[in-house]
Fold each of these.
Amino acid sequence: MTDPRLAVVILAAGQGTRMKSATPKLLHPLAGAPIVGHVLATARALGAEHIVAVVRHERDRLVEVISAELPEAIIVDQDEVPGTGRAVEQAVAALPADFDGDVLILNGDVPLLNAGTLASLLARHRDHTATTTILTAVLPDPTGYGRIVRTADGGVDRIVEQKDADDDVLAIPEINAGVYVFGVNELRDHLASLSLDNAQGEKYLTDMVAVLRSAGSEVSAVPVNESWIVEGINDRAQLSAAAARLNALIVRGWQLAGVTVQDPATTWIDIKVTLAPDVTILPGTQLKGATTVATGAIVGPDTTLVDCEIGEGATVKRTDGTLAVIGAGASVGPFSYLRPGTVLAADGKIGTFVETKNATIGAGSKVPHLSYIGDTEVGEGANVGAGTITANYDGVNKHRTTVGSFVRTGSHNVFVAPVTIGDGAYTGAGTVVRKDVPSGALALNVAPQRNIEGWVAVNRPGTDAARAAAESGSS
Ligand code: UD1
Ligand code: CA
């Protein structure tokens, strides 16, 4: 449902210098989505009539992400005047002139804040007479945040930024979360009057609190119960702390939905992953991107899957996979490397030290040991011998290998693509398959074995091998 009296402004123009990164801060990934993506998703959940995103630093990269996630968002380019106050001033100017509702301001770098908390902040703002409501938190270590200075009677007097604070203010543990509800007309009337006269030479949005108070308006502060939900991400230490928090929430959510996660501390699940009830996740597993796992499947230990689809009852052990589809009841690993385009049908097997890429392996077919299978189609019920390599690359182009249904290939084969092995065919151990093998044929191309009797005694006299041979009775 859309709330016609609500506009949400997302501040995303800052440089994020403390990340020391070529990637804009707000695009660093957190649980598989950019930091700002979490804020955009929260903004969408609030059903605001207008959503404005303010950008400047690396604006094109930001706009690409914002437009994909929230196509309806109004993009505002902040000019050269720095500061969150200027960002909001320009955002408000982009709202329709007849909008006279509430403006909820979100910092693009505070990603764990949930829509529920914001909805109650908004409800509280609307129930009370205060013209402005801000979200605060009491932090064990408030360093870096703006501090809430209260009046003797407990009201909010002003916000003082870390860099402008004296020792008394620095000792205040209550911080500004960077989330505010203003009436749009208060913003229209007063934003232009904010000065740049502070330690950072910026127009601080936080100065609105003192400005509104001296204009006779009341500002009320709502502290959150769990302070971590308002923690901002300014550097990579805060990024990893937020990632751990979010991951713990995601893991717990799946546990309550019926997924066994044996070791939450070493299990990482991205926000877009989907798991069915009765999935089991073993320690050291990372499920990334849009990975889905169907019921009864067992994944891990020590497995990383990116954008994979794991079928019902499959097992995937000590595996690294990207863009692979694993069928119901199939078995993968230990030590398998599934590259993009791997499709293993129901009840198939990709076993130990096997690498696959662009390979479809049919129902019940097995590639059990020590193989590279690339650009290949294997029919059903086939068994590919240990140590098989598809030689798919001629140095210029990639070629395809086709292995029919119910084929049995010997150990240590090389399939020199393009090549086809017909249904029900066999190949001998050590065969280098350069020509197509007809259905039902046995392909052999290894030279007959020749034994030179007594070779060791003549050519390696005095060695352990010669002694052992002599003791075994041969000369
Ligand atoms: C800000 C608050 C601080 C609060 C903290 C909460 C101000 C002046 N300070 O500090 O009181 O405790 O957030 O996390 O607001 N941005 C713009 N345009 C700019 C500058 C920043 O859009 O010119 C955006 C940034 O991209 C970011 C957000 O505003 O998403 C906050 O900016 P940041 O520089 O991180 O502010 P803090 O120092 O964290
Ligand atoms: Ca910040």
Note: Residues 387 and 412 are 5 Å apart (CA to CA).
Amino acid sequence: MKTTDKITVPHLIEMKKQGDKIACLTAYDWLFASLLDQAGLDVILVGDSAAMVFSGHETTLPISLDEMVYHSRCVSRGVKRALIVADMPFLSFQISPEETLRNAGRFLKEGGAEAVKIEGGMAVAETIRRLTGAGIPVMGHLGLTPQSIKAFGGYRVRGKKRDESAELVRDAKILERAGVFSIVLEKIPATLAKKITAGVSVPTIGIGAGPSCDGQILVTPDMLGLFEKFKPKFVRQYAKLGPAVVDAVSRYAADVKKGRYPSREESY
Ligand code: KIV
């Protein structure tokens, strides 16, 4: 595949077959989405992590469908190549099949997304079947699913206990049969992620799930060192933009206060 080719759902399945790793990150706005796309990512996820890293909430639960559609619309204006996947927020896919279909459809009709992501296993299989039946590609999400944080009681690694790990293997197969085109595996042991990856024909995308997944995703402000409230062990920081921004802004403020900015050359 040429790097300029538009990435589609079938491309991702083909990438797994060819053993080509899939690089994914999150975006919430036009500016970052266009920078990420220029860098050659395969998938840009409009994650509901927007609730935390964009809007400042403690969890992903409060973000609304309207807010997610807005973020998706902004991101889609900046992306030419990557596949755009939008997260269905908490309670946007649980109330009724009709409402779920209408909500998912908004991401494609209004948000410029090309697929949606839904958290959960067996409980959402029927929902996934209905969406894929309507032509809406669905990415699954298993393991530490942040929308269930109140039920889990914390952010611990999932799938360490035998029953939990068996359930995740079973759920991955259920999602595959329901028609997902890929599955995010979040914060599970690397050995379990390897087993799940070998057991399904669709690509797995890991986040804190070790090196054997077919692709990897991180929350962009985490990997750029912009979000520093907490740093999970699996995050690799490729830059320290938070301190760089604070430094640039304090130098600007000092220049303004001392009358060093603007200069004559920067004036009309
Ligand atoms: O919302 C998000 O950013 C996500 C990724 C962490 C996979 O779901």
Note: Residues 9-237 form a domain with the TIM Barrel fold (CATH 3.20.20.60).
